[in-house]
Amino acid sequence: MILQHVKARCGTYPRSTIQRFAVPDDKVPWIVDYKEYNPPNYTSPSIHGKPWADPVTGTY
């Protein structure tokens, strides 16, 4: 059984108007190839500079 992370699949990023890239259920597992996957590069401004957050590098 594969559990899907439903919070990360909502329509917009929390407390923003930035739309998430829609991923159909059959494309959720990382093992499935999904060449069309092209999510927006978005990081909430509220986490910039936090010691627990990954640094912004400009590469993903």
UniProtKB/TrEMBL annotation:
Top-level lineage group: Eukaryota
Pfam families attached to this UniProt entry: NUDT9_N
- Which InterPro entries does the annotation name? NUDIX_hydrolase-like_dom_sf, NUDT9
- Single GO molecular-function term? ADP-ribose diphosphatase activity
Can you name this protein? ADP-ribose pyrophosphatase, mitochondrial
Which species is this UniProt entry from? Papilio xuthus (Asian swallowtail butterfly)
